[in-house]
């Protein structure tokens, strides 16, 4: 029996944040980070809550790639305020932290009858799609763990492109490549469906159509809106279809060497497309055909499956080059000696990552190690 789930109401477009002017609550608990406070984005939220007479408290101690201590601290503070509304304002790290705090608090507390608060996610990066996914990625020591539970799905996602204007060019590049990776991996996943395919195809087109514009001109609200939508659409695809080994490898690389998530995906994506397509062999896998069909949708040369796969790989690399992204893991500041020392650990993490089983091609330790080495 198959299923396709879309949970949150999605408010999108310029002024989408004004949705907050319709919300009713007694006390809002805002999970965010210091950058959101510094850039005045938290003020945009609290101003609207105050106009509604809603009291609020702010937890802004979430750092990129949140770890268990951020969740435990968030639980303590949220519990003191007894909120009936939780608002996550930030990138994937903040939204994931809010999800994990809500989940942990409501699954460990004694008074199980207390109602779950209304949960609104307001992404300020166009990358993870976390506002519509049932996932939360939390770091435990140097391993990124993926929590999966529909309980964590927000009730409302607010996609306001104005909130993304302040994202610096390098983070625009990283997060934009994350969107592309979500769409590509959902499209070739073992559990892809007609529903997730439609969303993934659209997300891929939006990324190739608008990411460069966002990178060149951060204040281009039209392009920002397209990428913000793409991120959410790709999130809807992969929360249903799941992902593949680009993410498995990227989770371990991010966990061990703190490479930002989207950048890690960008470093590994083209290698994984070639591997899944069996480009060095017959290039006749199901995944190869799917990559070639995406290339055709993008009007890239694709007179044969092999040509389509190769064109897609070239297009991915051109996108990265145009945004001056690092060409290899070493260029992100990881030394050769450290890389070799931690390689076995990363391979082990990637092999047991929850994204590995849905990768279209089976993979073993040796192949994961080769993918890392080629990306170094
Ligand atoms: P992020 O949330 O870590 O943010 C990166 C940086 O951008 C931070 O310093 C943040 O303060 C800053 N930032 C955010 N919004 C900004 C804005 N509007 N203006 C200026 N600066 C801004 O980055 P991310 O890529 O959005 O999230 C990455 C995390 O999400 C990783 O931990 C990754 O593993 C996880 N993730 C989760 C899912 C999911 O489904 N839950 C999917 C993919 C990735």
UniProtKB/TrEMBL annotation:
SUPFAM superfamilies named in the record: Dehydroquinate synthase-like
Keyword field: NAD, Oxidoreductase
Domain Fe-containing alcohol dehydrogenase-like C-terminal, first and last residues per copy: 172-376
Highest taxon, organism lineage: Bacteria
Top EC category: oxidoreductase
Residue stretches making up the Alcohol dehydrogenase iron-type/glycerol dehydrogenase GldA domain: 9-161
PROSITE patterns xref list: ADH_IRON_1 (PS00913), ADH_IRON_2 (PS00060)
MF annotations from Gene Ontology: alcohol dehydrogenase (NAD+) activity; metal ion binding
Cofactor names: Fe cation
Family indicated by similarity: Belongs to the iron-containing alcohol dehydrogenase family.
Name of the featured protein: Aldehyde-alcohol dehydrogenase
Organism: Providencia heimbachae ATCC 35613
